Amino acid sequence: MAIAGVYQSGQVSRKRVLPGVPEFVVQSSKGSLVTAALPILMTVVVLLVPVIAPHSPLVPAGPAFVPPGHGGFLLGTDSVGRDELSRVLYGMRTSWFSALAVIASGLVIGITVGAVAAVAGGWVDALLMRITDVFLSLPGPVLAIAVVSALGPGLVHTLIGVGIVWWPFYARIVRGEIRALAARPHLEAAKMSGVGPIRRTVRHLLPGALPALVVTASLDIGNLVLTLAGLSFLGLGAPAPAPELGAMSARNLTFLLQDYWTAVAPGVGILVLALVGNMAGDGLRNLMKDR
Amino acid sequence: MMDQMRLIRQRQSGSRKTTSERGMAIPGSPDTLVAAVHALKVTFERAGTRIFALRGVDLEIAPSEIVALVGESGSGKSVLGLSLLGLLGHNSKPEIEGEIEVVGAQIGSLSEPQLRRLRRESLGAVFQDPMTSLNPTMRIGKQLAEVAGSAEACIDLLRSVGIPDPARRLSAYPFELSGGLRQRVMIAMALAGSPKLIVADEPTTALDVTVQAQILELIRSVRDRFGTSLLLITHDLGVAATVADRVVVMYGGRVVETGRAESLLREPKHPYTRALLRSRATLDASGPRRLTMLRGEGVDSRSEEPGCSFAPRCELAFDGCAVTPELEIAGDHRVACWRAESAPGPEADPLVHAPPVVAVSKGLSSVRINDVAVSFKVGRGGSQGTLKALRGVTLDIEPGGALAIVGESGSGKSTLLRAIAGLAPVASGGVDISGAGKVQMVFQDAGASLTPWMSVEELLEERLIACGVRDRKERHRRILEACDSVGLYQQLLPAKAGQLSGGQRQRAALARAVVVAPEVLLCDEPTSALDVSLAAIVLNLIADLRERLGMTLLFVTHDLAVARVVADHVAVMYLGEIVEVGTTEQILNDPRHPYTKSLIAAVPESGHLPVPLKGEPASPLSIPSGCSFHPRCPSARSSCGETSQILKVSPLSRGHFIRCEPVVEELTWR
Amino acid sequence: MGLFILRRLVSALGVIIALTVVVFILQKISHTSPVHALLGPGASQAAIHAETIKLGLNKPLLTQFLHYLDGLIHGNLGISYRTRRPVTADLIEFLPATVELALVALILAIGLGALFGLLAVRGGAAARIFQVVMLLGASTPGYLVAFAGLVFLYSHLHILPATGEASPSGQFQTGFVIADNLIAGDLGGAWDGLVHAILPALSIALVPAVSIGRVFKSSLEGTLRSDYVRTARAKGLSERRVIAFHAIRNSVSPALTMTGLQLGLMFAGVAVVEEIFAWPGIGYYTAQAIPVSDFPAISGVTLVLGVGYVLINALVDIAQSLADPRIKL
Q1: Domains (range + CATH), chain B
Q2: Contacts of C225 in chain B (CB under 8 A)
Q3: A104 located within any domain
Q4: Is A134 in Cβ contact with C18 (below 8 Å)?
Q5: Could you give the CA distance from residue B272 to residue B278 in angstroms, rounded to a whole number?
Q6: What is the pTM of this model?
Q7: Which chain B residue shows the shortest CA-CA distance from C323?
Q8: Which of A36, B74, B666, C300 could, after both became Cys, cross-link C87 (CB 3.0–4.6 A)?
């Protein structure tokens, strides 16, 4: 010890660190952790759909309108005798990946635009934020409908339409978080240590913006699944035989009062996906709040 | 102990004898007490861990008595204050044992409506930060009227706490008032309904020293005029000494010592109280020196071990300390310590006075600041203005010298440091540092200056890489060396800022600053957020490093006592200008500029009731004409508002500069 | 103050102009040519040529855009391919029903969101149950809520009506059924309109309600931990007064912003629900237009809703700045 009379405990105070485990994981409730991990589980499940699904989603497997639980059809069959369960599972697969694709592209564009704007400042910041504001100020689903009806129907066009309006949220968050972080002394300390601007951004700023982004993005999964289902209900998704949950409910609306399951089961599929997204978002937020 | 002696002498000979004359310091019989707390235990649960905030506390407050509750963070002083107000249960549900009797009512047995009535009719509260403690979107008048009733009553209250033009203030929002006025509003609100007891939790900590003196004076006068009892919670023994009749010292959730203010401060019996008194930086010590340090850091509120909480840090600890000591009468006060009697008196304590720091002159580095001005554009649109943070500062700092820059908020002291560090845009003038690039800075909030998601090791290594140390082994060696030199355990290298204690954070920040030895070390109030015992450790560490590495030190502080301890020269700043600069002796013992004089007179620790300077620092947005200090200057002449002053050398000493023509003139003719 | 409002309105105007550019570009890259759509598949080459010139489609892009803007300013949104009527006339007919539905839904969403936040802060078993129910509701696609309502409340219990905006006997003046009946003093008629609106509105309102509620909750939690709420409690104010006078006002701002944003996201739900309930609004109109790629109709809807959305958000901002004395304007 270099300085006489100075004593301190050698242990890390207050919190115990486990190697490799983020600190917030250790001290937060198990419930939040489980719900936060749900999207990973969901992704595994939808990846396995071709293995799990008992029948083809496109080819009739029995008589039409078999009620749920009869004839080996857990969710019954639809108007042409296709297995409802298989169709719902494939539909969930499409919906889940669609939502993730929009969020992923939104994150990539949002982080790039937000980080560049926050770090560059000046006119670059002003320009990028004006563009962001324009897209942020447009009503998302309406613009998506316009884009799809201009480009023609199809899943990819729908995703483009929604994706165009989805990234500005993330750009705003990233820019806001980075600007707030940049006002903290740790950035000035890094500057005084001689750390260059690129490393400062990547190592000292961006990691701090991620928690808020992750929470927002996970809360968005639910909203996005529902928005896409709504658009699909209006006929904006993949064309007819494809198993799309929103479109299935729309087409089977006429059978609602007699053979309710054909219209309801796809809706329940959406419900499961959106619930996973919402629970994960709330769980993650609790985890971050504990930190 | 010099400071204590002087403190007592002045108290006894001074103007205030009210306390002893009225004999109010001695707790009265139980039925006349304003508050009586008995065997109070409060336990919180946080993230699955039990936090023992109070471990059995007794406290009595007599009518018209000012009791100061002194302690460091984790002592439980604020929890005790909140439990007197019956406000404990609101945000976390604690377990409460023991009795709290306030104004004749048992807090524990009251229903929530009864509690509210008690608070409304008999209690008042003042909290630390008047900015956040007032509702930002509600007019002052409405916030007051919630407790005072009519507008007339509000105006009377505002007038009684010395707010000028009270009728007009009713329609103001809190953000439109200065810090001092806001705290006066808080006190007015606490006074509404003529309460028997006001709990004031660190009421002056967020304020400038001259404003602090005004508020302390107001607190005394409130007691004298209305006969209100006050529980004054503070970490600052100086504040306690100036206003309190009785002092209660807390440590680790227990009262360790209590007694009449003068007797307790003259003859502290508990080892903790003594250590606390000794580790304070004080104004009247002579020259740069090392402070006495307590070993260890803070208290572990989670510990379920019985016994004296202070034992792990106590030099007198023995096996018997495993049994919790009760408060016993010792002389004319009470102390909870098995060895209070056997303890040596304060004078007999070996003081760890290190030799004064000698300036290591290498003749290479110096900082030359030439007429530096910094201004910022603030606001937008119609309310745009220019904030003149620095208005032409010239300084020349000797190699190896230590300069303290003192001033109140808005004086530009931090901006000056940032301009030297290259972090603030210099509008005109220049900063010349030989050995450029060798400036390092220690920030006020060490925790915030460490990137939260990076480990200490990563942060140190990053600086070494930036300074061109290529070899990995060499880097590792120097990291370990730096840890050693700041007393940071190597096991802490993989830890991140959030896992470190306050002291460890400041050590880590220092380790980064010296892992490549800088020529100049800039310190921006590095101890102002720390507890007294921790501040002593950090100040000593900085002095050690400076000595060993031969660094030039620039130390910004609002605390004159700290300046005394670390620096050989002091520059006093006011509104972006240096008003006086000289050796520490000259500035602190023989101040000449009226502002420096008022600043020193306002420091509460000198034992007398501080002499407040009128008004509050003007905003750097609208600087007064002429001498910028003239609106507050006790000896201003009519010409002071017209002619601006320049920094002139004192006729008495060549190294002493004063920005006040009348003073220099007077000295010349004497 | 005036300056801030002016600035906010100018920026709203900028966004609206950008919106017209986006719609114009979409129109240009649209896969259905307006000429073919209007003339039908069997049109002669000469007719196509004539129509192209008539529509000005042979002129430079900028001229076309200015021509398009000029049309917009004069209320000309083009001719619908499907109804063969001016889009403007169609929208005037369909808009009131949607505005009425959206308003009822918005009031429901704000009410439920506020309840969500307040209950969450209060805690307790009832609050938790309400939270779970709301979370389930917010994860349910609007059409499923509508289905459930139709199957149980209409088909089985006959409590609520199935479709339409009002019972056939109701009287209309401007298309705002509830407002018209209220003005006419026909409380029964207004009630009938409200009863018709309740199920579709609820189907739309649940998702935004939870989004608003979440934001309100965390903002309220922050406020309740603040120093000034502690001061208010120390003053001996009742908890109800603390929340009503000190906490809520300082917590609504983020929730208001979220409400403005949710308004934009609501439209997919509006279109779906109008389609299911045969609600004569522009969602229904849009749903009819989508399968036949009726681009003029859709672009008209986009412009009208976009402008409304932009203006509402500008108003939200201005309202917030008026409510916060700290923003000096």
Answers
A1: 2-12+28-103+196-352 (3.40.50.300), 367-438+517-668 (3.40.50.300)
A2: 91
A3: yes
A4: yes
A5: 10
A6: 0.80
A7: B137
A8: C300
